[in-house]
Amino acid sequence: MSAALEGKVALVAGATRGAGRGIAVELGAAGATVYVTGRSTRAQRSEYDRPETIEDTADLVTEAGGHGIAVPTDHLDPDRVRALVDRISDEQGRLDVLVNDIWGGENLFAWDTPVWEHDLDKGLRLLRLAVETHAITSHHALPLLLRRPGGLVVEVTDGTAEYNRDNYRVSFFYDLAKTSVLRMAFALGHELGPRGATAVGLTPGWLRSEIMLDHFGVREDTWREALDRVPHFAISETPRYVGRAVTALAADPDVSRWNGESLSSGGLALTYGFTDLDGSRPDAWRYLVEVQDAGKPADTTGYR
């Protein structure tokens, strides 16, 4: 994909870490100019209180071959988002790819806790961070994206539409947030398609994000040490895998065939032929249904 997106401009909203960082870096590796946003900077951390920053992400984008530009942005603040889009318009005059990856809810949900027992303030805060931010960003960014035909919007979530339809996801608030983002992609597809742009929902599989690796007490180079405790973690993938999925979509002249659809990194790898960094093609959502949820022993044969 080297130079496949040269001359293109992308905004990855929520690019501090995890999938957002992986997507930003892969867009950069394909030659794009990538604006990366988030609330954690070298000067100030968000409530996550983690070391990753948007400046670090921008540097990684540039090192990969693109042009990374970090813009501190709270996507719950419409004025800040408007100023961000105005800056992109002034500096580039175009926006070709919008990735809505804003989340911020990692510390706000409780597993298997019914809505009447869940902390209400945390649940409502999760919905604002995971849903309202996407709506605000799309409202302000889409007029710029629509200036040129062929624009792409990627709504990043957890779970395919099929999987989330059939399975309760963690808790009321988590389930609602992740399903809402899928529906946003569907609705945007109806609004953007007739205007020459494409919107999709996209999920990674079991992501080896910085937070997930820390949770298991491993690093990217030692992640397999966690398999004794969490055998199904064998199907996991790096954040760069979903980044390659976004890059493949952005470089596809026939990307409109996916408009309004729910997609996964593993499914798109089979279509476009890209791999994860280790050369494998993990197909996590098929594995979850056929192996993990079916109660079978962990075995990724035929799934990566």
UniProtKB/TrEMBL annotation:
A Pfam family annotated for this chain is: adh_short
InterPro entries assigned to the protein according to its UniProt record, in alphabetical order: NAD(P)-bd_dom_sf, SDR_fam
Q: Which PANTHER family match?
A: DEHYDROGENASE/REDUCTASE SDR FAMILY MEMBER 1, DEHYDROGENASE_REDUCTASE SDR FAMILY MEMBER 1
Q: What is this protein called?
A: SDR family oxidoreductase
Tell me the organism.
Streptomyces cylindrosporus
